[in-house]
Amino acid sequence: MAEPAAILAMTGITKEFPGVKALSDVDFRLFPGEVHALMGENGAGKSTLIKALTGVYDIDGGEILLEGEAVRFTGPLQAQQAGVSTVYQEINLCPNLSVAENIFIGREPRRLGAIQWKKIHRRATELLRRLRLDIDASALLGTYSIAVQQMVAIARAIDISAKVLIFDEPTSSLDAKECEQLFRVMRQLKDEGIAILFVTHFLDQVYEVTDRVTVLRNGRLVGERLTAELAQIDLVAMMIGKELEVLEQLDEQPKSSPAALQDASPVVAASELGRDGAVAPFNLAIHRGEVVGLAGLLGSGRTEVARLLFGADRADHGQIRVDGTTVAVRNPRTAMAHGIAFCSENRRTEGLVEDLTVRENIILALQAERGWSRPIPRRRQEELVDKYIKALRITPANPDMVVRNLSGGNQQKVLLARWLITEPRLLILDEPTRGIDVGAKAEIQRLVVSLADGGMAVLFISAELEEVLRLSHKIAVLRDRHLVTEMPNDGVDVEHVMRIIASGAAV
Amino acid sequence: MTSLTGRWPGLRRPQRKYIPVLATLSLLAVMYGVGAVRYEAFSDGQVILNVFVDNAFLLVVAAGMTFVILTGGIDLSVGSVVALTTMLSASLLQEQGWPPYAVLPFVLFVGALLGFAMGCIIHYFEIQPFIVTLAGMFLARGLCYTISTSSIPITDPFWTSMAQSKVRFGEYFVSPSVIVALVVVIVGAYVLSHTRLGRNTYAIGGNPASALLMGLPVARTQITVYAISGFCSALGGVLLSFYMLSGYGLHAVGMELDAIAAVVIGGTLLTGGSGYLVGTVLGVLVLGVIQTIITFDGTLSSWWTKIVIGALLFVFILLQRVIGARKAR
């Protein structure tokens, strides 16, 4: 098949951040009149690649050709002027201005310095009609939904002259109908010859609207395929993959056997728990000494489940039972009072206070539980902290070290210690091994097993299926914000789980 | 009125964005009605014209303040810049013997320069406008006293003629200062509604990060609005010196707060991005009518002015909140 010339060709793109290689030798090409999905799990390098393209980041190696000419943009603005526009999930427009003005601001037609409002409105109305959008150009942008605002952003981009349109997870906050409208516009633009790069986590959407898929994993290119020739299961496999190096270094984790405990009533049970727009109502029971693994792609509702159980988000439906008694988990405080602990995936923003010391960070949750009027005596603090520094092998074993200066793995351990010190009955771990080195990963996995052996109930969330399978007694699979199935982990293999994720049905 | 409200063709029904201005207008009408019912001479047209005469300088200062608040900023230095301008004018005219045509551009330039400098500090060093203009407020007030610690009377013939002459419309009249103030308002409203500078001002107030990403000249606009505010303060200072015929370091103490109050009562959001100069005119009129009612009553202490303004501010800030909440659904 003779291929037309690529409008955009990125070759050998490399980008390093201190200590991390965010992109190594990635190739990406985009043809006029195609919708091209860019996929990958968290940290795969999707946004880094887009930021490298639009000039937000300087690249450390590689070449970007736009219509055959080498380019290096200094920022999104210059990229836009050259015809590469980005439509973000968050709207970068002004809600206090009219739709028409948002399309034309900064480039208003003028006569003798005076803005020609009539002309702006006429042209905006024409443009919106061309995109077959029923939007009143004179209304304030802020009165419209996010979906419509995105359409306006698209209208602005193509009026400025877009040859390449980048959609950076535009569908994350849209409902099904709004997505449909967005796809209609995408198809229309595609037919007009515009090249579209579409970042999404939703498999359905990839198959609905894209022609080609490029998958990244850990900053590397996994492959580029035609969507029509790529089975869903293969796409999932490309995204999740196997991290061989990790597997080699991890010894076989002996799973504890909580079978005897299964008969007892669960420590925490959610029934028909759900939150509109976050995750559909689900049932989930976690017993003493049991590790329940949550599997699913990014955006499938993994974290949302955890946040509901911890009261970080308010549930719209259903209830939570602790030891068989229905309790109202209104906020993290009440969850903590019922013995639920939650280690967030964003350890920097939602977990640790980076400028405090290891000791202060570890003591934080326990102190919060006791109430600030009853300070924990210094000696008691030191005993506790010493105990956990030893137990978790936090290095350096210095309680007065500022947390910012620890490695990722040790930061994660500090966060774990903070919750372990409160002796929780259910420990929720959201991606506890993300972004840490292999050794620390193995240690944390071992710790999860020993905690469960000690009788703690653990909800373990990870993007890495192997890890989930290795540690969990029970596996719950999520897809597109639904809990698809829950099954005991007896001889389930990665491919089986991938199949469920890909098909959205228990097999 | 079209240019004042920033309306453009294509708008037929009154939109929600005009609600704050309409609320201020109704408030003004009610207050005027109350005054007219209670006090016999109140309904004389000259009463409302006198409100303009007595507040022309405030109107000019508040117009500049409107630009700043539309970007989401604040300018606390305006009262001090007004005082400094009266002081500079008086000193240059009376003690240095400068002619009026040299004094006028010079003091206006000084005001604009002060605003420009504060705008640069705010933008390039990313410091809160509150603190930068607070520093500017102390600086300008302090500079007044380096010129003189006492009041300097102005006897310059141009100044006295401006103070005494009247622009007549039949049996009614206003001072020349009122004409100057109205010109400032009309030019300001035109700039806001029909120039890129004005639209960028709104855009920055709406979402500064977006404004930057859309390629708008954020730096230039932000600095310009403070320069405009400084210029308007200086012009307000000139008008005040016409009115007072003196320069004094204690002139216009607390005027920045009156200006902010007028802008807010006029329906401009303190968070920026929404509001009209015509609202500010109405806001100044509201403040003026309150004073007039209290003067007419004769039995009320002048502190009632402050009490009423305080209450109104609360009401209007709550109104903004309610409208804002409805907008956000």
Automatic annotation (TrEMBL), chain A:
It is a peripheral membrane protein. Pfam families: ABC_tran. The keyword tRNA-binding does not apply. It is found in: Cell membrane. GO terms for molecular function: ATP binding; ATP hydrolysis activity. Keywords: ATP-binding, Cell membrane, Membrane, Nucleotide-binding, Repeat, Sugar transport, Translocase, Transport. Residues 8-243, 259-505 form the ABC transporter domain. GO terms for cellular component: plasma membrane. InterPro entries: AAA+_ATPase (IPR003593), ABC_carbohydrate_import_ATPase (IPR050107), ABC_transporter-like_ATP-bd (IPR003439), ABC_transporter-like_CS (IPR017871), P-loop_NTPase (IPR027417). This is Simple sugar transport system ATP-binding protein. It comes from Streptosporangium subroseum.
TrEMBL record, chain B:
It is found in: Cell membrane. One of its GO terms (cellular component) is plasma membrane. It comes from the Bacteria. Pfam families: BPD_transp_2. GO terms for molecular function: transmembrane transporter activity. It is a multi-pass membrane protein. Coiled coil: none annotated. The chain crosses the membrane at residues 18-35, 47-70, 76-94, 101-124, 130-148, 169-192, 223-245, 257-290, 302-319. Its main location: membrane. Keywords: Cell membrane, Membrane, Sugar transport, Transmembrane, Transmembrane helix, Transport. CDD domains: TM_PBP1_transp_AraH_like (cd06579). PANTHER family: ABC TRANSPORTER PERMEASE PROTEIN YPHD-RELATED-RELATED, INNER MEMBRANE ABC TRANSPORTER PERMEASE PROTEIN YJFF. This is Simple sugar transport system permease protein. It comes from Streptosporangium subroseum.
